[in-house]
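Extended Data, panel c. Modelled sequence:
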Amino acid sequence: MDEMTRVKAALERWDCRIDGAEQRGGMSVVVPVRSRSGVPLMLKLLDPDAAAREAIALRAFPDDAAVRCHGHAADLGALLLERLTPVSLVGADPDELIMVQADLARRLAVPDPGGIDRLAETDGRLHQLDELHRLGPDLLGARAIGSARETIARLGRDPITTTLTHGDLHAANVHRDAEGRWRVLDPSPWVGTIAFESHTVIVERPRLGELVAAGPVELGRRLELFAEVAGVDRESAVRLCQARAVSSALAERSRAPGLAAGLVWMAEALT
């Protein structure tokens, strides 16, 4: 079924009309709509499996911390979502950004509702890291690669954590609602430690250069602030930040060399 057919079918199913221009993300299309009674909503189309996971997570998350999911059409890969305001955390002061997102991460750590993959299932993640390293063997030192592999392996030895984490908690995925509260949208959920969010929370990628210029002491301070507000072990936050910086640097090596250089700095500084 093509995209336009899916949109039309979803509009008919939920008795909505289009209310603005579509917005395209990396893996999804979002269309502003209104219900028959005039309620502003968002219609989101994405891969059916991803839509199912997102619906599970959003329905498990607290309503005051995440956008509400009003409908899920599994056959269409479609979600009907509450419409938040366009005001996001992008560009906020780094400490405000960290404190808001870390607090949200803590509040989103609800019991596993079922149907979400676990961070502890690490075989695929280790294979991906090894493949990326094979393609860019000279980008990072052996200690940084080894530390990242050990951290990923440790995740596989964590059968205890049975709560959700957002999975993609960057500033653009945090918006104000009509009452002025910060709430999340667009989860890529996992079951596992919220320390996983540390890498995404401590700096916006377009502003990574500012953190590099500020130096490793500032990097450590930001991670400490995240750990304190989120209520997680600082060492776990540091190790997961380092491992994700390694993976991201290797992934961005060819398509964004400048970003990769900043991520290499982060990975090496935390090793």
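The longest helix spans residues 234-252. This feature is highlighted in the accompanying rendering.
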